[in-house]
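Worked example 3 (structure in, sequence out).
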């Protein structure tokens, strides 16, 4: 009976996922999601046969079947395989969220670069793009669960380096300005 129950779970989830993918595919095509990569400048990732709609449908089908397989293995009482499927599901979800963060960050960095370079500040535009991509890369890797300590340390060291560089630039390059500010403060304290 457990094998029949596991088979029923797999069949029901398969047909339910197919139905959801069919309905969602129609909605996404109606919303013209397939034109989104061209607007974001990522048209090289997709072809006529591999569209964003098919990617979403495949991801839904994959995660639905992994979840169904986890439930089926739980019914069969095989704990080791159930644990493996649960970890695959957890890791896959983290990869999906991290990938979405990276895609959205790339889109935002492109917008910032275009807007800033449109005003004639190509140097500032490049700095903003690199800063956004660095932040988004750290967020994406953290969401994926990959090298959490390394990402945290690298991000902290980067922020610390920028702070030290700014302090040195102000201290060495702006001695006269710093002296004027300090003299102004001293004059206010005396009076």
């Amino acid at each position: 009976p457990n094998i029949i129950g596991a088979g029923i779970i797999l069949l029901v989830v398969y047909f339910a996922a197919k139905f959801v993918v069919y309905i969602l595919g129609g909605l996404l095509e109606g919303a013209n999601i397939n034109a989104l990569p061209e607007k974001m400048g990522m048209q090289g990732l997709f072809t006529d046969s591999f569209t964003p709609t098919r990617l979403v449908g495949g991801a839904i089908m994959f995660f639905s079947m992994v979840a169904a397989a986890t439930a089926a293995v739980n019914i069969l009482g095989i704990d080791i395989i159930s644990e493996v499927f649960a970890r695959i599901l957890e890791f896959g979800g983290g990869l999906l969220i991290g990938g979405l963060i990276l895609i959205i960050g790339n889109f935002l960095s492109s917008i910032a670069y275009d807007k800033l370079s449109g005003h004639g500040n190509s140097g500032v535009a490049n700095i903003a793009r690199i800063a956004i991509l660095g932040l988004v890369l750290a967020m994406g890797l953290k969401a994926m669960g990959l090298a959490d300590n390394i990402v945290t340390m690298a991000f902290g060291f980067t922020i610390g380096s920028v702070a030290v560089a700014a302090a040195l630039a102000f201290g060495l390059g702006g001695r006269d300005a710093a002296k004027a500010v300090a003299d102004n403060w001293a004059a206010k304290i005396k009076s």
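Notes: The chain has a mean pLDDT of 82. DSSP finds seven helices and no strands in the chain.
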